[in-house]
Specification:
This protein has four helices and six strands. The protein is α/β, with parallel strands linked by helices. A six-stranded mixed sheet has the order 3-2-4-1-5-6, sandwiched between helices. The N and C termini lie far apart (30 Å).
Length: 157
Amino acid sequence: MRIYLVQHGLALDESQDANRPLSVQGREDIARTAGFLSLFEKPRPAHVLHSGKLRAEQTAEMFAEAWHVSGHVMQTDDLSPNANPEVWAAKLNVMHDDVLIVGHLPHLPRLASLLLCGDCDTQPVRFQNAGVVCLEKDDDGYQVVFQINPTMFYEGG
């Protein structure tokens, strides 16, 4: 089973729009990251889940469209920035289908840390807006398969 952990794309500041939709840069970054991955990885998550915040929902929709899994996008609980990562670790431990989760800091790094190291505070992975961390679950636990960030597509990134 593969788990694609995605930090939402760069959003507008709250002073520009209280709903914090994706910025133009955020949309460009997601298009690059999702498009690049679709050329090689061909991800087919059975579920594309997001926190319900507009920037996460828009990010989930863009990834789902690029990966041709648009009908599987759903809002779900316990993905807010300060949610307890143990809730999703327990859910993932009983899942068998690939899943893409679009969330926020500090929840995503804490979840990845818990899955990889058994400790929420170790944080072996640094997340970036519109970046993807792919974990694979097998009988021995979780391993990092790859990480792709939009900064890879910019000079000096």
